[in-house]
Amino acid sequence: MDQTRDTKAVFNQSPPFVDIDLFALDRPLADAVSANGGADAAAELSDFGRHWGSAAMAERGRLANENIPKLKTFDAQGHRRDEVEFYPAYHELMAHSAHAGLHNSTWNEKGEAAGGASEVVRAAKFFMAAQVETGHLCPITMTRAAVGALASDRDLRGSLMAVLGTRSYDPAFAPWQTKRGMTMGMGMTEKQGGTDVRANITRAVRVGESYRITGHKWFMSAPMSDAFLVLAQAEGGLTCFFMPRFEPDGRVNAIHFQRLKDKLGNRSNASSEVEFDSAYALRLGEEGRGIPTIIQMVSLTRQDCAIASAGLMRSGLAHALHHTRYRSVFQKHLVDQPLMRAVLADMALHAEASTALVMRLCRAFDRAPADKLEAAYMRLLTPAVKYWICKSAPGFLYEAMECLGGNGYVEEGILARHYREAPVNAIWEGSGNVMCLDVLRALSRETEAAQAVLRQLADQARGLPGVSETAEFIAASFTRADAERYARHAVEKLALLAASAALNAIAPDHAALFAKTRLAADHGALYGACDLADNDIRNLLERALPT
Ligand SMILES: Cc1cc2nc3c(=O)[nH]c(=O)nc-3n(C[C@H](O)[C@H](O)[C@H](O)COP(=O)(O)OP(=O)(O)OC[C@H]3O[C@@H](n4cnc5c(N)ncnc54)[C@H](O)[C@@H]3O)c2cc1C
What we know:
This protein is of the alpha+beta class.
């Protein structure tokens, strides 16, 4: 021990993990993008990765979360204002995401699927942006997803795309028709029921060509959106509506925010409780067809939940690897301590498989319009992937945080924020059990197509340890009379099989390790307990973050 050291000197701390290329440093991501049709976008994604990996973007993320949105319900004279004020850093994040097309690049100018690898390329950007700031991605994802539901009204969709289709972010509180760019939100959840939206009591009354909506929503995020897709009971039953912030004559629509939620995480994003006092709205789709209409939006937001959670886990892993490569304990870098290596390698395997799986899912979104098997993959796997990835993220981030010791737990680092952020992706857009029930629904309604997907997965993972036993377990579980009670286990196995298949197309050696430790063996709840050889550990860590 050097007794002459200046006790105020800072040493044995890791340097900030910023000013990096989030794409180039992430081989599992680059390979997954390439394997799923996005190879041509490598340079564009690297530009994006450098920009979002900069210290300036990290600082925006910090500021937007430390200075949370404020509701201004009334002005000084008592007139209703119903505006939410955001810190400038939030607007800057929105502008950067809009500029990169995160809110619209999977659509063409008419609002139809853009085709090519647009889903995969956008997903790679979304995955990287989530590593920097996830709260602002809520309105970004809802805007993109709303276009899916607008397919029910092509005229409305056409007019909206003239504004929604630009890459400008325009935060002005003004009618959407007058703006350079716009965002959209969604109002389904009421006090008495979120999952069970049939229990909605908000009412819609037809007045000529439009409707007047009276009632409430218990959660309605991104309240400064320019318009919302809202569910309400019309004469013909539960119906989907397009509700703009301004009426056609320019008056502010009667969308009255009661308060903002005080949330565990997701703090840069505002989530409101709202009353509609005879608010103006247009019907989207037929009366009584509200759920099938809005589900077109929800399927896309579920996809984004999975992408964002995979991105959060990637960020946790990268920070953990970075830190442990600098920090020494007992005269040895943490990353060289056998027990820490076992934890990090196990996490690297989970993150790599998650990345491969979400990108494979996005390829299905790209190809679904022209390929029935891909459409069936998308239908069956979206809830399964959301279930497994979003529910594994909080535990994963907790472990990543612990790799940084006490530094992981304090707010100056990003991991405390990631950890608080992670659970929401599992809760909103259909919680865990609801995702499992949705997998069962797909199996019962589109049995043949779903079985074709299961066969394809087993084929693509053939030869990996534990595949045939897993495929048999899944088939047997889903055909039980009491399948609902056992659905969690079966859906988890389905996601693990799909992850093995997706990884097998990219990194067969790592797919074999994943299958050996997750399909052939019971992995257990924590990281670091599975049997990996030294050489495998070295390869996993080097691939996750090159030295
Ligand atoms: C930060 C945040 C922002 C949100 N923003 C929005 C928004 O912008 N718009 C919007 O519409 N909603 C929003 N929500 C609401 C969210 O979508 C709902 O909270 C979610 O869908 C669950 O609904 P619930 O809260 O009513 O819970 P419930 O429906 O009461 O569910 C409670 C639990 O029961 C489980 N469950 C439900 N049914 C079954 C069943 N049949 N069998 C077994 N288990 C079951 C669920 O999985 C869940 O775990 C937001 C939520 C949060 C936390």
